[in-house]
Amino acid sequence: MRLNGVASIDSADPLANAIQEAQLVVRVVVSEVFSNCPRYIHKMQTVERSVYVPREGCQTPAPDWKLNEWVQDVLPGSV
To answer: What residues form DSSP beta bridges with 8?
Structure first.
């Protein structure tokens, strides 16, 4: 399915507290919905969870790209 709409980002959104390690919440006000032909939708399954998905009781590692100097001035907080 494809959605068209207007997105907003809110660092003070109450939903952020419900999602482990969330820094921002993106909400979309949907204006159009298009269904996709199932002919081109592949069946997928989870093979392995990424180490970058936050988990309770584990510290999520920073991906290598976040350690590059060129991105430091646009990342919130320090990595």
So the answer is: 27
Q: Using alpha carbons, select from 45, 62, 65 the residue that is nearest to residue 54.
A: 62
- Give the span between the Cα atoms of 56 and 58, in whole angstroms: 6
Structure tokens at 7: 């997105």
Pinpoint the alpha helices (H) of the chain.
Answer: none
Spatial distance between the Cα atoms of 42 and 39, rounded to a whole number of angstroms: 8
The answer to whether the beta carbons of residues 32 and 5 sit under 8 Å apart is: yes
Give the pLDDT confidence of 13-50 residue by residue, as tens digits. 999 888 888 888 999 999 999 887 778 778 888 899 89
H/E run at residue 6:
strand 2-10
Q: How far apart are CA 23 and CA 66, in angstroms?
A: 15
Q: How far apart are CA 33 and CA 44, in angstroms?
A: 22
